[in-house]
Write a structure and sequence with these properties.
The structure is a homodimer.
Chain A (H helix, E strand, L loop, with lengths): L3 E5 L4 H13 L3 E5 L12 H4 L7 E4 L2 E3 L2 H11 L14 H31 L6 H24 L10 H4 L2 H7 L5 H5 L2 H11 L2 H11 L1
Parallel strand pairs in A: 1-2
Antiparallel strand pairs in A: 1-3, 3-4
Helix pairs in contact in A: 1-3, 1-10, 4-5, 4-7, 5-9
Family (chains A, B): Belongs to the GST superfamily. Phi family.
Protein name (chains A, B): glutathione transferase
Pfam family, one (chains A, B): GST_C
Chain lengths: 213, 213
Protein backbone atom coordinates (compact mmCIF):
# COMPACT_ATOMS: atom_id res chain seq x y z
CA UNK A 1 0.00 0.00 0.00
CA UNK A 2 1.28 3.44 -0.91
CA UNK A 3 2.23 5.71 1.95
CA UNK A 4 -0.27 8.52 2.48
CA UNK A 5 1.18 11.95 3.11
CA UNK A 6 -0.77 14.88 4.53
CA UNK A 7 0.89 18.29 4.26
CA UNK A 8 -0.89 20.65 6.60
CA UNK A 9 -1.26 22.30 9.96
CA UNK A 10 -3.14 20.91 12.97
CA UNK A 11 -4.96 24.22 13.47
CA UNK A 12 -6.31 24.19 9.91
CA UNK A 13 -9.93 22.99 9.83
CA UNK A 14 -9.48 21.56 6.33
CA UNK A 15 -6.42 19.59 7.51
CA UNK A 16 -8.45 18.28 10.47
CA UNK A 17 -11.20 17.11 8.07
CA UNK A 18 -8.71 14.98 6.15
CA UNK A 19 -7.10 13.48 9.27
CA UNK A 20 -10.54 12.58 10.67
CA UNK A 21 -11.31 10.58 7.50
CA UNK A 22 -7.92 8.81 7.64
CA UNK A 23 -8.52 7.98 11.31
CA UNK A 24 -11.98 6.55 10.53
CA UNK A 25 -10.29 4.24 8.01
CA UNK A 26 -7.53 3.33 10.48
CA UNK A 27 -4.85 4.10 7.88
CA UNK A 28 -1.23 4.99 8.52
CA UNK A 29 -0.02 8.35 7.19
CA UNK A 30 2.91 10.68 7.30
CA UNK A 31 2.16 14.20 8.54
CA UNK A 32 4.29 16.94 6.98
CA UNK A 33 3.93 20.11 9.01
CA UNK A 34 3.50 23.27 6.92
CA UNK A 35 4.49 26.35 8.91
CA UNK A 36 1.68 28.83 8.17
CA UNK A 37 3.20 31.57 10.35
CA UNK A 38 6.30 31.50 8.15
CA UNK A 39 4.21 31.46 4.98
CA UNK A 40 5.44 28.07 3.79
CA UNK A 41 2.05 27.48 2.12
CA UNK A 42 2.55 30.51 -0.12
CA UNK A 43 5.83 29.39 -1.70
CA UNK A 44 7.53 26.40 -3.29
CA UNK A 45 7.69 23.50 -2.81
CA UNK A 46 4.18 23.69 -1.32
CA UNK A 47 2.68 25.57 -4.31
CA UNK A 48 3.50 22.56 -6.52
CA UNK A 49 1.21 20.52 -4.29
CA UNK A 50 -1.57 23.12 -4.04
CA UNK A 51 -1.39 26.01 -6.52
CA UNK A 52 -3.95 27.93 -4.42
CA UNK A 53 -1.49 28.12 -1.53
CA UNK A 54 -3.80 26.66 1.12
CA UNK A 55 -3.41 23.67 3.41
CA UNK A 56 -3.81 20.74 3.23
CA UNK A 57 -2.19 18.97 0.33
CA UNK A 58 -2.24 15.21 0.02
CA UNK A 59 -0.23 12.49 -1.67
CA UNK A 60 -1.18 8.88 -2.22
CA UNK A 61 1.75 7.47 -4.15
CA UNK A 62 1.87 9.51 -7.37
CA UNK A 63 -1.58 10.98 -6.90
CA UNK A 64 -1.69 14.55 -5.61
CA UNK A 65 -4.88 16.20 -4.34
CA UNK A 66 -5.55 19.33 -2.31
CA UNK A 67 -9.26 20.01 -1.76
CA UNK A 68 -10.16 18.51 1.65
CA UNK A 69 -13.51 17.03 0.56
CA UNK A 70 -11.96 15.55 -2.58
CA UNK A 71 -9.28 13.91 -0.39
CA UNK A 72 -11.89 12.42 1.95
CA UNK A 73 -13.87 11.19 -1.08
CA UNK A 74 -10.71 9.59 -2.50
CA UNK A 75 -9.96 7.90 0.83
CA UNK A 76 -13.55 6.63 1.09
CA UNK A 77 -13.50 5.20 -2.42
CA UNK A 78 -9.96 3.83 -2.56
CA UNK A 79 -9.86 2.32 0.92
CA UNK A 80 -13.44 1.08 0.88
CA UNK A 81 -12.74 -2.10 2.88
CA UNK A 82 -10.79 -0.40 5.71
CA UNK A 83 -12.47 0.87 8.89
CA UNK A 84 -15.77 2.76 8.70
CA UNK A 85 -17.44 2.75 5.28
CA UNK A 86 -18.06 6.56 5.18
CA UNK A 87 -19.68 6.02 1.76
CA UNK A 88 -23.06 7.49 0.89
CA UNK A 89 -25.95 5.29 2.01
CA UNK A 90 -26.03 2.55 -0.59
CA UNK A 91 -29.77 2.74 -1.28
CA UNK A 92 -29.73 6.37 -2.14
CA UNK A 93 -26.35 7.82 -3.01
CA UNK A 94 -27.94 10.85 -4.72
CA UNK A 95 -29.64 11.96 -1.50
CA UNK A 96 -26.32 11.68 0.31
CA UNK A 97 -24.60 13.76 -2.38
CA UNK A 98 -27.37 16.32 -2.01
CA UNK A 99 -26.61 16.68 1.70
CA UNK A 100 -22.88 16.81 1.02
CA UNK A 101 -23.62 19.82 -1.16
CA UNK A 102 -25.75 21.32 1.61
CA UNK A 103 -22.67 21.20 3.84
CA UNK A 104 -20.64 22.82 1.04
CA UNK A 105 -23.03 25.64 0.25
CA UNK A 106 -25.18 26.22 3.36
CA UNK A 107 -23.17 25.15 6.42
CA UNK A 108 -19.57 25.83 5.41
CA UNK A 109 -19.77 29.50 4.29
CA UNK A 110 -21.66 30.67 7.38
CA UNK A 111 -19.74 28.57 9.94
CA UNK A 112 -16.38 29.47 8.40
CA UNK A 113 -17.26 33.15 8.72
CA UNK A 114 -18.31 32.65 12.37
CA UNK A 115 -15.18 30.62 13.14
CA UNK A 116 -13.04 33.37 11.63
CA UNK A 117 -14.77 36.09 13.65
CA UNK A 118 -15.09 34.23 16.97
CA UNK A 119 -12.10 31.88 17.08
CA UNK A 120 -9.29 32.90 14.73
CA UNK A 121 -9.56 36.71 14.92
CA UNK A 122 -9.25 36.71 18.75
CA UNK A 123 -6.41 34.17 18.44
CA UNK A 124 -4.54 36.56 16.11
CA UNK A 125 -5.29 39.64 18.24
CA UNK A 126 -7.82 41.01 15.75
CA UNK A 127 -11.22 42.49 16.60
CA UNK A 128 -14.42 40.51 16.06
CA UNK A 129 -16.98 42.27 13.85
CA UNK A 130 -20.22 42.06 15.85
CA UNK A 131 -22.39 42.95 12.83
CA UNK A 132 -20.98 40.05 10.81
CA UNK A 133 -21.53 37.69 13.75
CA UNK A 134 -25.14 38.81 14.10
CA UNK A 135 -25.85 38.36 10.39
CA UNK A 136 -24.19 34.93 10.16
CA UNK A 137 -25.77 33.74 13.41
CA UNK A 138 -29.24 34.46 11.99
CA UNK A 139 -28.33 32.57 8.81
CA UNK A 140 -26.95 29.60 10.75
CA UNK A 141 -30.15 29.43 12.84
CA UNK A 142 -32.16 28.96 9.64
CA UNK A 143 -29.78 26.27 8.36
CA UNK A 144 -30.01 24.43 11.68
CA UNK A 145 -33.82 24.57 11.57
CA UNK A 146 -33.61 22.55 8.36
CA UNK A 147 -31.05 20.19 9.96
CA UNK A 148 -33.35 19.70 12.96
CA UNK A 149 -36.15 18.50 10.69
CA UNK A 150 -33.81 16.30 8.65
CA UNK A 151 -32.30 14.72 11.78
CA UNK A 152 -35.77 13.98 13.16
CA UNK A 153 -36.21 11.73 10.10
CA UNK A 154 -32.81 10.01 9.99
CA UNK A 155 -30.09 9.63 12.62
CA UNK A 156 -27.41 11.13 10.38
CA UNK A 157 -27.62 13.69 7.61
CA UNK A 158 -26.88 11.23 4.79
CA UNK A 159 -29.06 8.42 6.16
CA UNK A 160 -29.02 5.94 9.03
CA UNK A 161 -25.24 5.56 9.17
CA UNK A 162 -22.44 8.04 9.87
CA UNK A 163 -20.90 9.08 6.56
CA UNK A 164 -18.70 11.71 4.93
CA UNK A 165 -21.67 14.10 5.03
CA UNK A 166 -21.48 14.24 8.83
CA UNK A 167 -17.68 14.03 8.99
CA UNK A 168 -17.25 17.13 6.82
CA UNK A 169 -19.05 19.18 9.50
CA UNK A 170 -16.71 18.23 12.36
CA UNK A 171 -13.98 20.91 12.24
CA UNK A 172 -16.24 23.98 12.12
CA UNK A 173 -18.69 22.37 14.53
CA UNK A 174 -15.87 21.79 17.03
CA UNK A 175 -14.64 25.39 16.72
CA UNK A 176 -18.10 26.83 17.35
CA UNK A 177 -18.64 24.64 20.43
CA UNK A 178 -16.14 26.90 22.21
CA UNK A 179 -18.15 30.04 21.38
CA UNK A 180 -21.59 31.46 22.30
CA UNK A 181 -22.85 30.01 18.98
CA UNK A 182 -22.96 26.67 20.81
CA UNK A 183 -26.48 27.57 21.98
CA UNK A 184 -27.82 27.34 18.42
CA UNK A 185 -26.83 23.68 18.34
CA UNK A 186 -27.84 22.84 21.90
CA UNK A 187 -31.31 24.38 21.67
CA UNK A 188 -32.34 21.99 18.90
CA UNK A 189 -32.77 18.46 20.33
CA UNK A 190 -31.95 16.41 17.22
CA UNK A 191 -29.10 18.69 16.15
CA UNK A 192 -27.75 18.57 19.70
CA UNK A 193 -27.82 14.75 19.85
CA UNK A 194 -26.23 14.46 16.39
CA UNK A 195 -23.56 16.98 17.26
CA UNK A 196 -22.66 15.23 20.55
CA UNK A 197 -22.61 11.86 18.77
CA UNK A 198 -20.25 12.82 15.95
CA UNK A 199 -17.94 14.96 18.13
CA UNK A 200 -17.41 11.90 20.40
CA UNK A 201 -16.21 9.61 17.60
CA UNK A 202 -12.74 8.21 18.40
CA UNK A 203 -11.49 9.39 14.98
CA UNK A 204 -12.29 12.96 15.97
CA UNK A 205 -11.04 12.70 19.56
CA UNK A 206 -7.72 11.61 18.02
CA UNK A 207 -7.65 14.80 15.91
CA UNK A 208 -8.21 16.86 19.07
CA UNK A 209 -5.38 14.97 20.80
CA UNK A 210 -3.11 15.91 17.90
CA UNK A 211 -4.12 19.56 18.38
CA UNK A 212 -3.27 19.44 22.09
CA UNK A 213 0.24 18.17 21.38
CA UNK B 1 -38.30 6.07 -17.71
CA UNK B 2 -39.50 8.37 -14.93
CA UNK B 3 -40.38 11.89 -15.94
CA UNK B 4 -37.83 14.43 -14.75
CA UNK B 5 -39.22 17.62 -13.25
CA UNK B 6 -37.19 20.79 -12.72
CA UNK B 7 -38.79 23.43 -10.52
CA UNK B 8 -36.94 26.68 -11.05
CA UNK B 9 -36.53 29.97 -12.85
CA UNK B 10 -34.66 30.54 -16.13
CA UNK B 11 -32.78 33.50 -14.61
CA UNK B 12 -31.42 31.38 -11.74
CA UNK B 13 -27.84 30.28 -12.40
CA UNK B 14 -28.34 27.09 -10.37
CA UNK B 15 -31.43 26.23 -12.45
CA UNK B 16 -29.41 26.84 -15.63
CA UNK B 17 -26.70 24.45 -14.38
CA UNK B 18 -29.24 21.64 -14.04
CA UNK B 19 -30.86 22.27 -17.43
CA UNK B 20 -27.43 22.27 -19.11
CA UNK B 21 -26.73 18.79 -17.72
CA UNK B 22 -30.15 17.50 -18.82
CA UNK B 23 -29.54 18.94 -22.30
CA UNK B 24 -26.11 17.25 -22.50
CA UNK B 25 -27.87 13.96 -21.80
CA UNK B 26 -30.63 14.69 -24.31
CA UNK B 27 -33.31 13.87 -21.73
CA UNK B 28 -36.91 15.04 -21.71
CA UNK B 29 -38.05 17.02 -18.67
CA UNK B 30 -40.94 19.05 -17.40
CA UNK B 31 -40.11 22.61 -16.36
CA UNK B 32 -42.20 23.98 -13.49
CA UNK B 33 -41.76 27.74 -13.30
CA UNK B 34 -41.28 29.09 -9.77
CA UNK B 35 -42.19 32.77 -9.60
CA UNK B 36 -39.36 34.32 -7.59
CA UNK B 37 -40.79 37.85 -7.77
CA UNK B 38 -43.91 36.57 -6.00
CA UNK B 39 -41.85 34.64 -3.44
CA UNK B 40 -43.15 31.22 -4.44
CA UNK B 41 -39.78 29.71 -3.44
CA UNK B 42 -40.25 30.90 0.16
CA UNK B 43 -43.55 29.14 0.82
CA UNK B 44 -45.31 25.80 0.40
CA UNK B 45 -45.57 23.72 -1.69
CA UNK B 46 -42.01 24.66 -2.80
CA UNK B 47 -40.49 24.43 0.70
CA UNK B 48 -41.38 20.73 0.76
CA UNK B 49 -39.11 20.30 -2.25
CA UNK B 50 -36.29 22.51 -0.96
CA UNK B 51 -36.43 23.44 2.73
CA UNK B 52 -33.81 26.17 2.12
CA UNK B 53 -36.25 28.05 -0.12
CA UNK B 54 -33.95 28.35 -3.12
CA UNK B 55 -34.38 27.24 -6.73
CA UNK B 56 -34.04 24.75 -8.28
CA UNK B 57 -35.72 21.65 -6.93
CA UNK B 58 -35.75 18.42 -8.87
CA UNK B 59 -37.83 15.25 -9.04
CA UNK B 60 -36.95 11.98 -10.71
CA UNK B 61 -39.92 9.77 -9.93
CA UNK B 62 -40.03 9.56 -6.13
CA UNK B 63 -36.52 10.96 -5.68
CA UNK B 64 -36.36 14.62 -4.65
CA UNK B 65 -33.11 16.64 -4.75
CA UNK B 66 -32.37 20.35 -4.60
CA UNK B 67 -28.64 21.15 -4.68
CA UNK B 68 -27.76 21.88 -8.32
CA UNK B 69 -24.43 19.98 -8.32
CA UNK B 70 -26.04 16.98 -6.62
CA UNK B 71 -28.72 16.97 -9.32
CA UNK B 72 -26.13 17.07 -12.12
CA UNK B 73 -24.21 14.26 -10.38
CA UNK B 74 -27.40 12.19 -10.13
CA UNK B 75 -28.17 12.77 -13.83
CA UNK B 76 -24.61 11.81 -14.79
CA UNK B 77 -24.70 8.61 -12.76
CA UNK B 78 -28.27 7.48 -13.40
CA UNK B 79 -28.38 8.28 -17.12
CA UNK B 80 -24.82 7.17 -17.84
CA UNK B 81 -25.58 5.77 -21.29
CA UNK B 82 -27.49 8.83 -22.61
CA UNK B 83 -25.76 11.66 -24.48
CA UNK B 84 -22.43 13.03 -23.25
CA UNK B 85 -20.78 11.01 -20.47
CA UNK B 86 -20.08 14.04 -18.19
CA UNK B 87 -18.49 11.60 -15.73
CA UNK B 88 -15.08 12.23 -14.21
CA UNK B 89 -12.23 11.03 -16.43
CA UNK B 90 -12.22 7.29 -15.89
CA UNK B 91 -8.48 6.98 -15.26
CA UNK B 92 -8.44 9.41 -12.42
CA UNK B 93 -11.80 10.17 -10.83
CA UNK B 94 -10.17 11.61 -7.69
CA UNK B 95 -8.43 14.34 -9.69
CA UNK B 96 -11.74 15.23 -11.31
CA UNK B 97 -13.44 15.39 -7.90
CA UNK B 98 -10.61 17.64 -6.72
CA UNK B 99 -11.33 20.10 -9.53
CA UNK B 100 -15.08 19.89 -8.89
CA UNK B 101 -14.29 21.06 -5.36
CA UNK B 102 -12.11 23.85 -6.76
CA UNK B 103 -15.17 25.11 -8.63
CA UNK B 104 -17.19 24.82 -5.40
CA UNK B 105 -14.74 26.63 -3.13
CA UNK B 106 -12.57 28.86 -5.34
CA UNK B 107 -14.58 29.79 -8.44
CA UNK B 108 -18.18 29.84 -7.20
CA UNK B 109 -17.91 32.19 -4.17
CA UNK B 110 -15.98 34.88 -6.03
CA UNK B 111 -17.92 34.70 -9.31
CA UNK B 112 -21.28 34.60 -7.50
CA UNK B 113 -20.32 37.77 -5.64
CA UNK B 114 -19.26 39.46 -8.91
CA UNK B 115 -22.41 38.31 -10.69
CA UNK B 116 -24.52 39.71 -7.86
CA UNK B 117 -22.71 43.08 -7.94
CA UNK B 118 -22.41 43.47 -11.71
CA UNK B 119 -25.44 41.69 -13.15
CA UNK B 120 -28.25 41.22 -10.63
CA UNK B 121 -27.90 44.41 -8.57
CA UNK B 122 -28.18 46.64 -11.69
CA UNK B 123 -31.08 44.45 -12.90
CA UNK B 124 -32.93 45.09 -9.61
CA UNK B 125 -32.10 48.82 -9.56
CA UNK B 126 -29.56 48.44 -6.75
CA UNK B 127 -26.11 50.06 -6.61
CA UNK B 128 -22.96 48.07 -7.34
CA UNK B 129 -20.40 48.18 -4.53
CA UNK B 130 -17.14 49.12 -6.28
CA UNK B 131 -14.97 48.04 -3.33
CA UNK B 132 -16.45 44.53 -3.38
CA UNK B 133 -15.93 44.30 -7.14
CA UNK B 134 -12.28 45.36 -6.80
CA UNK B 135 -11.60 42.81 -4.05
CA UNK B 136 -13.34 39.92 -5.84
CA UNK B 137 -11.76 40.80 -9.17
CA UNK B 138 -8.30 40.50 -7.62
CA UNK B 139 -9.25 37.12 -6.12
CA UNK B 140 -10.68 35.86 -9.41
CA UNK B 141 -7.49 36.87 -11.24
CA UNK B 142 -5.49 34.59 -8.92
CA UNK B 143 -7.93 31.71 -9.41
CA UNK B 144 -7.73 32.13 -13.19
CA UNK B 145 -3.92 32.12 -13.04
CA UNK B 146 -4.18 28.60 -11.60
CA UNK B 147 -6.78 27.66 -14.25
CA UNK B 148 -4.49 28.96 -16.99
CA UNK B 149 -1.71 26.62 -15.87
CA UNK B 150 -4.10 23.67 -15.47
CA UNK B 151 -5.62 24.24 -18.92
CA UNK B 152 -2.17 24.37 -20.50
CA UNK B 153 -1.79 20.77 -19.31
CA UNK B 154 -5.22 19.36 -20.20
CA UNK B 155 -7.93 20.64 -22.55
CA UNK B 156 -10.59 20.60 -19.84
CA UNK B 157 -10.35 21.06 -16.08
CA UNK B 158 -11.16 17.44 -15.22
CA UNK B 159 -9.01 15.92 -17.96
CA UNK B 160 -9.10 15.55 -21.76
CA UNK B 161 -12.89 15.40 -22.06
CA UNK B 162 -15.63 17.87 -21.19
CA UNK B 163 -17.17 16.84 -17.86
CA UNK B 164 -19.32 18.09 -15.00
CA UNK B 165 -16.30 20.03 -13.72
CA UNK B 166 -16.47 22.35 -16.73
CA UNK B 167 -20.27 22.34 -16.95
CA UNK B 168 -20.65 23.62 -13.39
CA UNK B 169 -18.79 26.82 -14.39
CA UNK B 170 -21.13 27.74 -17.26
CA UNK B 171 -23.82 29.90 -15.59
CA UNK B 172 -21.51 32.29 -13.73
CA UNK B 173 -19.05 32.33 -16.64
CA UNK B 174 -21.87 33.37 -18.99
CA UNK B 175 -23.03 36.14 -16.64
CA UNK B 176 -19.54 37.61 -16.34
CA UNK B 177 -19.04 37.61 -20.13
CA UNK B 178 -21.47 40.52 -20.25
CA UNK B 179 -19.40 42.56 -17.76
CA UNK B 180 -15.93 44.18 -17.70
CA UNK B 181 -14.72 41.04 -15.85
CA UNK B 182 -14.67 39.38 -19.29
CA UNK B 183 -11.14 40.73 -19.74
CA UNK B 184 -9.82 38.45 -16.97
CA UNK B 185 -10.88 35.43 -19.03
CA UNK B 186 -9.87 36.80 -22.43
CA UNK B 187 -6.38 37.87 -21.38
CA UNK B 188 -5.40 34.27 -20.50
CA UNK B 189 -5.02 32.23 -23.72
CA UNK B 190 -5.91 28.79 -22.37
CA UNK B 191 -8.73 30.07 -20.16
CA UNK B 192 -10.05 32.06 -23.11
CA UNK B 193 -10.05 29.03 -25.46
CA UNK B 194 -11.68 26.81 -22.78
CA UNK B 195 -14.29 29.41 -22.01
CA UNK B 196 -15.20 29.93 -25.71
CA UNK B 197 -15.32 26.16 -26.21
CA UNK B 198 -17.68 25.35 -23.35
CA UNK B 199 -19.94 28.39 -23.86
CA UNK B 200 -20.50 27.25 -27.47
CA UNK B 201 -21.77 23.78 -26.52
CA UNK B 202 -25.27 23.17 -27.96
CA UNK B 203 -26.52 22.16 -24.49
CA UNK B 204 -25.64 25.63 -23.22
CA UNK B 205 -26.88 27.52 -26.29
CA UNK B 206 -30.22 25.80 -25.65
CA UNK B 207 -30.23 27.18 -22.09
CA UNK B 208 -29.62 30.68 -23.47
CA UNK B 209 -32.48 30.21 -25.96
CA UNK B 210 -34.76 29.33 -23.04
CA UNK B 211 -33.66 32.56 -21.32
CA UNK B 212 -34.49 34.62 -24.41
CA UNK B 213 -38.05 33.25 -24.55
Amino acid sequence: MAVLKVHGSPISTATQRVIAAINEKGLEYEFVHVNLAEGEHKREPFLSLNPFGQVPAFEDGDLKLFESRAITTHITRNYATSGTSLAPAINNPSVCVNWMQVENHQFEPVTSALTWELVFKPMFGMTTDAAVVEEKEAKLAKVLDVYEKRLSQSKYLGGDAFSLVDLHHLPNLQCLMGTPIKKLFESRPHVSAWSADILARPSWVKVLDMLKN
